[in-house]
Amino acid sequence: MTSLSGVWAASLTPLTSDLTPDPGRLVEHVGRLFLDGCDGIVLFGTTGEATSFSVGERIALLDGLMAGGIDPGRVIVGVGCAAAVDTVELTRSADAHGVAAVLMLPPFYYKAVTDDDLAEAYGWIFGQIGPEAPPVLLYNIPQVSGVRVSANLAGRLFGDHPDVVAGIKDSSGDLQSLRGFLAAMPGAAVFAGTELLLVPGLDEGAVGTISAAANVNAVDIRRAFESRAPADMEILVEARARLSAQALIPALKSIVAERLGDPGWAAVRPPLRTLPTPVGSALASALSSA
User: How is domain 6-227 classified at the architecture level of CATH?
Assistant: First the structure.
């Protein structure tokens, strides 16, 4: 089983013409990511449009990915849902395939909650899935979820549930936040949720990155991971700046579509909006020249 470290891609979710998840395209995409240097992928994270899919759709796509021969030890499954019971169901499904870990948002619909409230919710989930379930990576992305996993909460969960909580993905994009998790969870697998903090994070004790951009520039991210060279990090900064000129998920899908000559790859589920083909073509060209 691949260790929880290195370069992991927060995988896109390709869709069919009727906007259902496409396991065939996904298996091919994951294979390319592995060839480009990714240690593993995260299925159904934010970049994978997780909250746009039902529990049944997410389970079916994981089943399809495994049926396609992808090594489950190189897969982390996003299981965070607004309803804790759905998180339990998804985690059990992931456990049946022997995946490397699950990535778990806190229940995120109600915003006026305390660390004690969240600790109780996580504790209930952990009690339902049991200690034999896949390792849990907590997931902090407050700019999207609206609910922050504090360093204090993460440290508390890591200490109280050492057989369950393996680490955290911090997608705040803030180095100080990453430092807080590293201090609160000594020895845990702390991932930077952006390649922009890859080398600074590694220098402070993080284990690597789970990156959306790795869908289109995994080779460059792997190079920076291996070298830690400022020049290689500068390439990542420039590429991210180009990607950030558009909505990130449609931009990434449009680049994959252009590179493969497969317009269907650009499709996203509402409320996201597919980029017009000329915009995607220009973005793919610009990224290739970065």
Answer: Alpha-Beta Barrel (3.20)
